[in-house]
Write the structure tokens for this entry.
Amino acid sequence: MVPVSHYLLFAALLFGIGALGVVTRRSALTVFMCVELMLNAANLTFLAFAREQLGSRGLSGHAIAILVMAVAAAEAAVGLAIVIAVFRTRGTVNLDEVKTLKL
């Protein structure tokens, strides 16, 4: 059985990589992928604590993880729609060149 600390360390590593990607990358698509990576790290943390607290019978962590996945799917759909709309009007998805939403 793998200890919970290994899961938490891996989740912290994933979250750190995602946060670094959000701060350093300039492409909107890459930023969205890094945000999704951060959400997956949060899911891993929820599931690790659910396993630690209640064993295999606890479903609260699983329910929260499913809720986070639903929010991530909605965020990806809305975010990609915005990126496509900006690309059609501006011709780029570089976040440095798209500073305001004015046309």
Notes: The chain has a mean pLDDT of 84.
